[in-house]
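Project channel, design review

CF: Before we commit to the Anopheles culicifacies constructs, I'd like one complete example in the thread so the newer folks can see what an input/output pair looks like. Taking CRAL-TRIO domain-containing protein.
RD: sounds good, go ahead.
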Amino acid sequence: MSIKYNEKNYPYIDLGRGYIIYLQDDDYTEQRWIVKAEQELNETPENKARSLEQLRELLRGENKLTVPLDDEKFLLKFLRPLAYDVQKAFDCIRHTFAMKRSYGKDYYEGRIKPSHIRHIYDSGMVNFLPLRDDDGCGICVTQLGRKWNTSKVSMYDVVALFRINIEASLMDPLVQVNGIRIIFDFDGLSMSHVAQASPKHAMVSLQWIQKCCPLQLKSIHIVNNSMLFNVLFTIFKPFISKELRDKMHFHNRDFSSLTKCISPKCLPPMYGGTLDAPECEGQLLGDYMQLYDKHYEITGDERTSAKENMAKKTLHKPAGILDTSEPDPGRKGGKGG
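CF: and here is what came back for CRAL-TRIO domain-containing protein:
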């Protein structure tokens, strides 16, 4: 298990047994995704070009925003998931920076990029599964019980983890089209974990997900949830919209119900699936995510206006999501089946 580079010099994690994890950067070329994007997201070359220019025009009128207007991939991560609704994409970006202004000191300062929270990756709390679901959705597992050492990982860190992982997800064109599924595993949840939560943490994290994030969050799956989880959920429940609540599924230890929502071939045996891929080592995932720090630095500072940023023509290599696409035909994975 190690970090390697494909023919385009993009890094990926070789898990062994033919499975890989890597950050998708290229746009999709398979006809089924092109057709799906057109039918479900109104994506055509003409609409894409028109929407990009309209969004740029709105952003040029905003001062105090560091937005790379010349970076088409950055703008598309807001436009495509929102079916090219320019006003919604614009509002999403404005809400993002408003959140930074309101909660920057506590929730953003020192927690902008993967290297700032690599102790979370090192702990093994996060696992990106190496196969997409049948409909093309990416799948991420976060363990918020036994592997969460509250003496080393604060709730502020956990909130940052959600944001940083989702920001990475949004750079993946296939996730922009197909969305993502998240599994929260609460095995080993204790009072020390519950004590970390507060209404403010709940409000900030859910406000970001529901107002700032254009990601198509297809479903959230709660597993190994005990009675103690109900205490924790009570803190978060008042801030959860009906739309988000409808996407939540509570399985406890009934993994047969989980495999009705996510294909068993994508899930490891511990969740009732048949996936035989080795679990990614936490420190290796930390090393890998840290390679993409530069992407997060681009939008981590509001001191430059959009107009000034356009003049500077900021260049950076954008990240994508942890993808399961194959860098060569001999590897397992694929783009969702």
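RD: helpful, thanks. Residues 86-108 form the longest helix (23 residues).
CF: The chain has one domain: 2-299.
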